[in-house]
Amino acid sequence: MKGSGKYDMKGNVAFVSVLSLLQLGKQILLGTFMLTTSALVFQNYAAIAQDSSSVARIAKAITVRLETAASPGSGVLVKRDGERYTVLTAWHVVSSNRLGEELAIVTPDGEEHQLEQGSIQRIGQVDMAVLTFSSRRVYEVAPIGNIDSVAMLDPIFVAGFPLPTSAVPLRLIRILKGEVIAKPENPLPGGYQLLYSNPTLAGMSGGSVLNSKGKLVGIHGKAEKDDQISESMGKAIATRTNMAVPITYYRRSALRTSPKPLSTVLPAPNDDLVPIENNQRKVTPPGTNLIEIFEQKPTPQPKQDLPKRFEQKPTSKPNENAPVKIDNRKVVEETIVCPEGPRGISCRRNRKRVSGNIYIK
């Protein structure tokens, strides 16, 4: 009995020890799981923050400020060709600008550049336009994306320069984050096809609309207006839904207006344009003035003598009493008549058979 009691006591102690170890292991596992989950969440937030920071850097580098007398707005650097830059913006920002009027483009470094006169062009019939300016400085241009890369509730970024207010008297760049809330299959009036929740302000029209990878997917245009509330209050009230024209229109326009390769435009070496005679190719010697070649008048050729059979003999009035041909078989009286007409003297022969006595005139 005593041995049995000792055995039960030892078994109870072992059982309690096992339970304690299980509790300790459970706590360790739970703590490890919580630490792992916290680490994953922290890494996710860090990745999102890093992506947002990268997008903000791109937006700041490519978005420009447009200063016009009528409607100041924003724009995006989309192309560089040597010292010439192309800016993409909203058509309603520059539509009132007349030829000869000034329009300043303020780049991210604070430099002010003047519009190249006559460079404003509307893209199709949508609320989008391009303009150009020249600068020796090197600026970053936007990486072009595609509207198909964003879907409903995807993060979206809008950058632009709002108009000054009493609280913020300067036009500072704003980079606002939101979500895509609508993407109609058919474009709305003006070409709008991307709706988002970003709280934009006046003056940001023409600014960049970027996806989570920092690629340009649209140009910010306007805010949706609540017609019922606006009518009841007598002023425009926005619904806090903003709209953009997709970059697709610019991509199509750039493809249509891209220049042909130089190999199809420039002549081949030593293929100067010179007159070719007798199907023989000629090459202009160095130092020859091509303009003088083409301005030379043809050298008059000396008048060649006509063949003898074409020579015209002077017309003279023959003797009216021409001799009569007589042979042994027939007698013919031949008369030459030369009347004088408007074209001069014209002669013809009259022949007549004579019968009876043969005689000579």
Task: Explain the overall architecture.
Helices cover 24% and strands 26% of the residues. It has 5 helices and 18 strands. The relative contact order is 0.09. The strands form 4 sheets. The protein has a 7-stranded antiparallel beta sheet. A 6-stranded antiparallel beta barrel has the order 8-9-10-13-12-11. It has a 3-stranded antiparallel beta sheet with strand order 14-15-18, with no helix packed on it. It has a domain at 310-353. The model is unreliable at 35-42, 259-295, 325-329 and 357-361 (pLDDT under 50). The termini are far apart. The protein has 361 residues and is of the alpha+beta class. The radius of gyration is 49 Å and the shape is elongated.
Strand and helix layout:
Layout: H1 2-62, E1 63-67, E2 73-81, E3 84-89, H2 91-94, E4 104-106, E5 112-114, E6 121-122, E7 129-134, E8 155-160, E9 174-182, E10 194-196, E11 208-210, E12 216-225, H3 227-233, E13 238-246, H4 248-256, H5 290-295, E14 325-326, E15 331-337, E16 340-341, E17 344-345, E18 348-353
Antiparallel strand pairs: 1-2, 1-4, 2-3, 3-7, 4-5, 6-7, 8-9, 8-11, 9-10, 10-13, 11-12, 12-13, 14-15, 15-18, 16-17
